[in-house]
Amino acid sequence: MTLMVMVLCSIASGLSFGHEPKAVMATLCFFRFWLGFGIGGDYPLSATIMSEYANKKTRGAFVSAVFAMQGFGIMAGGIFAIIISSAFEAKFPSPAYADDALGSTIPQADLVWRIILMAGAIPAAMTYYSRSKMPETARYTALVAKDAKQAASDMSKVLQVEIEPEQQKLEEISKEKSKAFGLFSKEFMSRHGLHLLGTTSTWFLLDIAFYSQNLFQKDIFSAIGWIPPAQSMNAIQEVFKIARAQTLIALCSTVPGYWFTVAFIDVIGRFAIQMMGFFFMTVFMFALAIPYNHWTHKENRIGFVIMYSLTFFFANFGPNATTFVVPAEIFPARFRSTCHGISAASGKLGAMVGAFGFLYLAQNPDKDKTDAGYPPGIGVRNSLIVLGVVNFLGILFTFLVPESKGKSLEEMSGENEDNENSNNDSRTVPIV
Hints:
This protein is an all-alpha fold. The protein has 19 helices and no strands. The protein has two domains: 124 residues, no CATH class; 232 residues, MFS general substrate transporter like domains (Growth Hormone, Chain: A), CATH 1.20.1250.20. It is globular. It starts with a helix and ends in a 19-residue tail after the last helix.
């Protein structure tokens, strides 16, 4: 269902309609909202399905690899935008904005963004058949749906070994009062309240810092010559230049960071990677902020770009990956996807604060020097200091998140605590 929502809303985004620009933007926002609804469902489902199918020794690598694939998605989206904009520029050349403001955006440019948005439906649609054939995870079928026979049958197919269902043990587990607590109940809060606070707060704080970095992209890309002044390009050329710059950032910083996490998460652990990531993000933010005037000089811009890229690298080889992995490992089976979804939603609230809040906050304190339509803010330097503090808070809240390296999901969630004698056989369905 979430896949179909994503496919349909990707296509609908490219078909946004209206007689006026505002109407087109309104329908576009409507379809993008529901696209986000589908993606918001896919986040916890993808993480939970992989965590419940993987073994405890390589689970971190498998779940983080699911997340790391979005790095290739970012690159693929950028490359596709480069191809489409190049094709339209070759077919429909137009003057730069400085030469002809109106003529720089040709009517055919309206097709460029629509094609790019609609193309996102293709890779999602290609997974529909395989998803429809994928069995439910055994932990859900056995512990939530209470069907041990079906769970054993599904896992026999997946693992290609014979597994005998133990319905009697499953019924004993389901009858225990200690297992009957609900989400946000007193028992849940005593067992997992701090864990949920840890996963939601760290994802929230990370996304404030991660998405606010977009504020500096236009300055950085312009400083190193990747994007010339806007008035020197037409609309399609601007699409090409921005897509190229973002693809290069993904290639050099985003993708390597993700796959460093995949390589090391089961070696040094989630806690260490998240702590290290937040620490270096804090260091680099303060290193950018405190001598900010030094970095504004043209001869020092390359150093600024290196610092900026390292911040991105340690966000991805750090909390951007681990905040996705950990919520899928530390909560009971019947709450796992829900708690992951709550954590992800908290992260997107942070993204809103980072993307929009800092857009206002980073404005020049002098009202005569602010961007058109914005009130005075605290300036870029002070905004970077605030982001450094946000990352430092991420370090502190990481202490609420338990280490799950090398432990089974039942150990982490406490589902085996009252069942040690019942679940000794590793071939029984509830702990497959």
